[in-house]
Design brief:
The chain has about 400 residues and is of the alpha/beta class. It has helices at about 35-55, 115-125, 140-150, 175-180, 225-230, 245-255, 270-295, 300-320, 325, 330-335, 335-350, 350-370, 375-385, and strands at about 25, 105-110, 130-135, 150-155, 165-170, 190-195, 210-220, 235-240, 260.
């Protein structure tokens, strides 16, 4: 993972580098006004420990240096000719309100669901101008406008292009490519999607001369707007795309309190799979826990109260001790009888959870064997117990 500075400066010395494929975070504060920097100062202190951990892990902190100002702002000063869409007359309506060089661009968000609305609120509060939204759902459009103060709302994305400079597609992964195929950017505009799976190349169909493409994926669970906005502070945002645009997106990420990083080429599917396991996978596991909790008379809230503390303690142990050392339970002791009793209870009361237990137990056995808690013979006995039919 690579972390970039969106400002021009001297390279940070390379320390503990493991190779070009490592994750690199952007070092240093981005350019911005004094208020922004002061607001980030407290969070920056908390981030120093993370920086130290990254360096200790051998992560490459050598930055690239994209230009201070994105091409999507260049047309404001007449540095590039303004190109109209093919077939359009020279006097047709198009985005003439432009930000001044060095200012934040006018932003439009396509998609007013959880991610689009959460980003819209976060960016607005950070002082970035979100001036238009597009969504086919009237209720979502109205809510987005109410929460962000955005003045312009559209049912379709094409008219939004006439209002803004930076377009963010906050839509499902499977919609990104076909939607990009329906759009045609003006020279000086940039198009960004929020997919954790796809790269900037997914937007190729919308590109024209003088345009840029990128991606901006916050590693945040957007289940609730306010919780998501708060969770952006200290969260990772994976950025991809043209170098000048990447610098602007890094500034945007830092403005909402996040940590911008660039992933190694070709790694996004693995990155996104890890993210899904961390979020959706955890919810699936908690659902199984709640199902078993009902057997002992607990409702969902009761199960979360009782077993949630154990989950939180385990995460704290993993951070402090490492994953292998944090593993506890019958797999670390070779307790075959306990495992068989668990499987009998699961098969009787929660057969779907029994399948999940078996899959996770296989992984636990491998960890226990790897750290030397059990020998290969004990591991083989445990695996054999898991394979027994209910």
């Amino acid at each position: 993972m690579h972390r970039f500075s969106p400002s021009v400066g001297l390279p940070v010395p390379r320390r503990g580098v493991r190779g070009a494929g490592a994750v690199k975070p952007w070092p240093g504060p981005p350019p911005g006004d004094d208020d922004e920097r002061e607001a980030r100062a407290d969070r920056a202190r908390a981030d120093r420990e993370r920086e130290a951990a990254l360096r200790a892990a051998g992560i490459d902190l050598d930055p690239d240096h994209p230009a201070e100002r994105s091409h999507l702002l260049a047309t404001a000063s007449g540095e590039e000719p303004h190109h109209h869409r093919a077939g359009m007359p020279a006097d047709h309506p198009h985005p003439h309100h432009r930000s001044s060089p060095g200012d934040r661009p006018y932003i439009g968000i396509v998609g007013a669901g959880a991610v689009g609305t959460g980003l819209g609120v976060a960016l607005t509060r950070a002082g970035w101008p979100v001036t238009a939204v597009a969504s086919r759902d009237p209720a979502r459009r109205e809510r987005f406008q109410r929460l962000t103060g955005t003045g312009r709302a559209f049912a379709e994305p094409a008219p939004l292009l006439d209002e803004v400079e930076l377009i963010i597609l906050a839509v499902p992964d499977d919609v990104v490519v076909p939607l990009a195929g329906e759009l045609r950017l003006y020279s000086g505009q940039a198009l960004v999607h929020t997919s954790g799976l796809l790269g900037a190349e997914a937007l190729g169909a919308a590109m024209a001369a003088g345009t840029q493409a990128g991606s901006f994926h916050p590693l945040v669970a957007f289940a609730d707007v306010e919780r998501a906005v708060e969770a952006l502070h200290g969260a990772t945002v994976a950025i991809d795309g043209d170098e000048e645009l990447a610098g602007l997106l890094a500034r945007m990420a830092e403005a909402v309190g996040a940590v911008p990083v660039r992933l190694p080429p070709g790694s996004k599917p693995a990155y996104h799979a890890a993210a899904v396991l961390s979020a959706g996978g955890m919810i699936a596991l908690l659902d199984a826990v709640a199902e078993l909790g009902r057997v002992i008379g607990l409702d969902e809230a009761g199960s979360l109260a009782v077993f949630g503390r154990l989950t939180e303690q385990t995460m704290a142990n993993a951070r402090a001790l490492g994953i292998d050392a944090a593993l506890t339970g019958p797999m670390t002791r070779g307790d075959v009888g306990t495992v068989l009793a668990h499987l009998a209870a699961l098969d009787a009361h929660a057969p779907d959870a029994a399948a999940l237990y078996r899959v996770l137990a296989e992984r636990e056995i491998a960890i226990a064997e790897r750290r030397g808690a059990i020998d290969p013979a004990a591991a083989a006995v445990l695996r054999a117990s898991l394979a027994k039919a209910p």
